[in-house]
Amino acid sequence: MYEQIDAYAARLIEESTPERTVWNVEKLRKGKPTDWNYIDGCMLTALLDMAELTGERRYFDFVEGFVDDFVAEDGSIRTYDPAKYRLDDVNEGRVLFPLYEQTRKEKYRRAAERIRAQLESQPRTAEGSFWHKQIYPRQVWLDGVYMALPFLALYERSFGGGDYADILRQIEVVRARMFDGEKRLYRHGYDAGRTAFWADPATGCSKSFWLRSIGWFAVALADLTEIVPEGPVNARLRALLAELAEGVARYADDESGMYWQVVDRGGERGNYLETSGSSMLAYAMLKGARLGALDKAYAAKGEKTFRGIVKKYLSFSNGDLNLGGICLVAGLGPEDNRRRDGSYEYYISEPVVENDAKGVAPFLLCYTEIKRLAP
What we know:
The protein is mainly alpha-helical. Helices cover 53% and strands 6% of the residues. It has one domain (2-373): Glycosyltransferase (Alpha/alpha barrel). Helix 3 (38-54) packs parallel to helix 15 (357-373). The longest helix has 18 residues, at 232-249. The mean pLDDT is 97.
């Protein structure tokens, strides 16, 4: 199985260029060229992990060449517009730090500083949370925690003063506003202004527990526990990861270990076991257990989920491996897109695709953790 997954990752990079990546299904469907975006950023992050684990230069070389196509010597980034204030655009900047550490190209540091400058002026809620995007005023999404806060932590560790207080503050707001104590799950979005059509007028939260949004948050917590040095902030991050893992694990499918697109409504009509969020949770559990943030039992849970994904959704077609069961995209609003209302019916209506990086990248990250388990 390992050799087949290695060949799958290699095939994806062989078929991709900075102008067209085969794992960005949204761009392919719209016929648009590649730009600086979080989907490619997720995949590049996974490929760097593959490079570290396997020692194979092709993964690192691909990432370096890809980023060099976007980042100029002065640190400017082609197609990146910080004035749009989209947290999604921050995510791809994560790869700048390992690239800088290994090559010492100053342009990577300059590019990281440009993205950091966006966060310096990113609009915030009254409680200090980043708006998810400028077009979503006062809205906090679980997705955005992953998109922005690990980058911010990497910047603090590499080039800043090592102050992680703002990161923890924003995560504490998410915990206070978006965690459902009865369900032990996080809701996808929160509108601090309580005016969005999808928001509960009393709590400001969206209706449902979307799997991938919880997965984004879980991965953010797991990655932050590795980035942030030991101390009170790290201890709190570990506690929050443990709470999340304990809460979500009760909703795993007994047979496969996977999780449902709408987490707490397993087996209901139209709901399905989804690959991207399941991979994210498996990765967070495996990594959390490896780092000592979670009990070792979670490594077994994560491994069961990974093997369930392999059995259910990794299949051969025309001689090539393909990964299926991936929700293409889901979100909340904006005002002129009321279909995206956070309801159960909405989340199960989005397209399900193969080989999109939102599923492939966490699957490969999960795979790297599985291989680290091997004696």
